[in-house]
């Protein structure tokens, strides 16, 4: 996979992870209520759920390319429209997307279980991956390239939430995130709209 293509994928995955939402609020709650270890447990289990969805999406899209190229093209354009809709929604969120996370009594096992459930129980996550990864999967993509896509999504997701859990356990990162949630939303919106326009212009890479 070319470095420029991978950087595009990594940037979108990073913005998706950083966007204020239920996953980030979950990690914050467990960190506030149980300390660093439950927060990290929630982060890592959530990343495993994300990796599973990414794996299923990559293999499913690969099969569609080979067997149903017209259907894959329709999914690609539909994905572009979905990414554009997410971008507009993020831009319109403004300060409404600010985080409100409260502490809860928790344990490492509970945090890990809920982290996985939040990832696997979020239907929007699989839609996001179908929309996103349809722009990167190609008919001749090697096993290594597919693995890179899955690992990129999983490592960036887990890395960001682990960073949040570790930082929050001994700093004022929550107020910082709350104050800048609207800027994160705006940056995410611009990036998603740019990707949607790039798809309309032609294949990425």
TrEMBL record:
Keywords on record: Cell membrane, Membrane, Transmembrane, Transmembrane helix
Location within or outside the cell: Cell membrane
Protein name: Threonine/homoserine/homoserine lactone efflux protein
Recorded superkingdom: Bacteria
GO molecular function, one term: amino acid transmembrane transporter activity
Pfam families cross-referenced by the UniProt entry: LysE
Source species of the chain: Halomonas stenophila
Any GO CC annotation of this UniProt entry: plasma membrane
Organismal lineage: Bacteria, Pseudomonadati, Pseudomonadota, Gammaproteobacteria, Oceanospirillales
Membrane topology reported for the UniProt record: Multi-pass membrane protein
Transmembrane regions: 41-61, 68-88, 116-136, 143-163, 183-201
């Amino acid at each position: 996979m070319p470095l420029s293509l991978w950087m595009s994928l990594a940037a979108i995955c990073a913005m998706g992870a950083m966007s204020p939402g239920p996953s980030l609020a979950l990690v914050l709650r467990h960190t506030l209520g149980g300390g660093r270890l439950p927060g990290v447990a929630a982060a890592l289990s959530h990343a495993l759920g994300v990796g599973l969805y990414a794996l299923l999406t990559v293999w499913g899209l690969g099969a569609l390319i080979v067997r149903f190229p017209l259907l894959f093209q329709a999914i690609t354009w539909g994905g572009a429209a979905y990414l554009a809709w997410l971008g507009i929604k993020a831009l319109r969120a403004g300060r409404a997307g600010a985080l409100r996370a409260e502490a809860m009594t928790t344990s490492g096992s509970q945090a890990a279980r809920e982290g996985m459930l939040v990832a696997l129980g979020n239907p929007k996550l699989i839609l996001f991956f179908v929309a996103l990864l349809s722009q990167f999967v190609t008919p001749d993509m090697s096993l290594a390239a597919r693995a890179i896509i899955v690992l990129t999504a999983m490592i960036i997701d887990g890395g960001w939430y682990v960073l949040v859990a570790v930082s929050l356990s001994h700093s004022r990162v929550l107020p910082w995130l709350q104050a800048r949630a609207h800027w994160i939303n705006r940056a995410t919106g611009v990036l998603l709209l740019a990707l949607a326009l790039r798809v309309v212009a032609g294949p990425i890479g």
